[in-house]
Amino acid sequence: MIDPHPAVWARDLAKTFRVPEREAGVLAAVKSLVHRRMKDVAAVKGVTFRLEPGEVVGFLGPNGAGKTTTLKMLAGLLHPTAGQAAVLGHVPWKRERALLSRITLVMGNRNQMQWDLPALDSFALNAAIYRLPPAEFARTRDELIDLMGVGELVTKPVRNLSLGERMKMEFIASLLHRPQVLFLDEPTIGLDVTAQRTLRQFVAEYNRRTGATVLLTSHYMADVTALCRRVIVIHHGSLLYDGDLAGLGEQFAAYKTLGVTLDGADGAVAGVDWAAFGEVVATDGAKVTIQVPRASASAVAARVLSELQVADLTIEDPPIDEVIARVFAAGAATAAAGTDGDDVATPSVVEPAATSTA
After folding, report:
1. Of 18, 16, 19, whose CA–CA distance to 81 is shortest?
2. N or C: where does the chain have the smaller number of CB atoms within 10 Å of the terminal CB?
3. What CATH number does residue 304 fall under?
């Protein structure tokens, strides 16, 4: 039976921390012992979104945007200051066993494995914590080990494994109870390209086999483009964008890139008034790369084809990491202007449907 409710939803979810502050120096330190000055820091400012069962969604933002704080609230590790949320129909910060046995939180900078023991022992410990039937545990463990391709590593002490190998073990340990919702916070941080690719393939295959819902934060755009069709972007705790990954370029990139390769000698490039077509950003032999306004890309391409001897022509959106940087810049400009975000073009956020929190 298909669950009619979203797997995860948040409405006006907010978190404010009260933190001490003082100036540098011994005198300031002594004064703080008698009178501590406090200030409120808004980490998350009323974000609203929903994830349907089986979705893999990228959760993007610069450092300090509020991504990890949001994930911790959804995983039940933090109580919000305001707002509502539900994960699989449960209020996460109530930390009910019926929910905790169906979710997982994997953080790339945290380690849950027993350092001096082989990973197999940590797997057995997790099986005991989740009270997994022995036959079911063994079957799932062996499936995940095979899927990750680490059969020769699970008997080694964790301290003897590389960072990438440890992260593979962390993933297996976190998925032994077959969670339905995965909160992944920078799971590939610090890993080499090969390890990143392995973990991405693992997450994609786990999602395909189990239909699990995944909310992923990452600063590596390759993670996002490989796994996510939809992205949620926040900056300074506020939601800037919620929609298709492809839609980011249409909304925040005002230009397209044309790659024009001329038919003839490389010297033919020098005889063309490229400024009449667009802004030249690169030249490589007979190939010239120009930027043109998004709205006029088709017309410019038609002119290029009619006026020049063209061997090849490509029209591309700017790289996704550049688009994301533009989104962040838009959010920073809005914050500096002291607005509520009305000056930044963002699509409407879909209001989460009412669902039971029992």
Report:
1. 16
2. N
3. 3.30.70
CA–CA separation, 92 vs 72, rounded Å? Answer: 9
Q: Give the span between the Cα atoms of 69 and 156, in whole angstroms.
A: 34
Query: For 131-144, how does the pLDDT look when each residue is reduced to its tens digit (9 = 90+)?
Result: 999 999 999 999 99
DSSP string, 219-275: S-HHHHHHH-SEEEEEETTEEEEEEEHHHHHHHH--EEEEEEEESS-GGGGGGS-GG
Note whether 30 and 10 are within 8 A (CB).
no
Written as one string, the DSSP assignment of 39-100 is: EEEEEEEEEEEEE-TT-EEEEE--TTSSHHHHHHHHTTSS--SEEEEEETTB-GGG--HHHH
Q: What distances in angstroms separate CA 3 from CA 89, 102, 175, 177, 352, one per listed residue?
A: 10, 14, 21, 20, 14
**Residue 62 domain-assigned (yes or no):** yes
Q: Which residue type is seen at 228?
A: C
Asked if residue 18 lies in contact with residue 39, where contact means CB atoms within 8 angstroms, the answer is: yes
What's phi and psi for 70, nearest 5 deg? Answer: -65, -45
Amino acid identity of residue 357, one-letter, is T
Question: How far, in Å, CA of 300 to CA of 224, rounded?
Answer: 31
The two structure tokens encoding residue 40: 């409120």
Over the stretch 22-56, which tens digit does the pLDDT of each residue have? 888 888 788 888 888 888 999 999 999 999 999 99
